[in-house]
Amino acid sequence: MTESDTGTGAPYTDAARARLVMAYEACELAERARAAVPIGEHELRPDGTTSSPGAMLADAARVLAAAQRFFEAAAVFERVGGADWQLIGDVLEVSPQTARVRFAMAEAGFRQGLLFPEGIGADSEATRLRVCMAQEPLETALDLDDWVLRHEDGDSELGTTPVSGGLVRTDRRRRIEKHS
Q1: Sequence-distant (≥ 6) Cβ neighbours of residue 72 within 8 angstroms
Q2: Residue percentage of the chain with pLDDT more than 70
């Protein structure tokens, strides 16, 4: 399903798309971390040692990588939403230059993916996925709506569209007037 399939026609703002990528990364992080909680019946030997040496460390490394993607997506969202490097540096307790060095390429990649989705050199599955989410946000948002509702833990204030309902669309009239 694309945005035009819904009959609304107006695309989502770049900041809404960046926030959606961040939401997706948070979902991935939560799922990876959640998978590490159960202790499988045959995971431990009778003496308490692991039956699969290195497996939990590999799982932890995947959780850490997911956390890093979430962290990066949050910085990109803040930048696309108008935050300057000074603010990002202040929040992270680093210099603005350090913040810029850490996140500028991610921001540029996100913006390039919005402008040229077919021409981006998507060097990884994660990059291709982010570009797809940014280009087809409604489908991703609806999937995340379902995920949130399955995991709501009694938070009844979320409504039926806890992700897609908060996305902001651009106002085509303002865009047309702006370019006139």
Answers
A1: 25, 103, 106
A2: 77
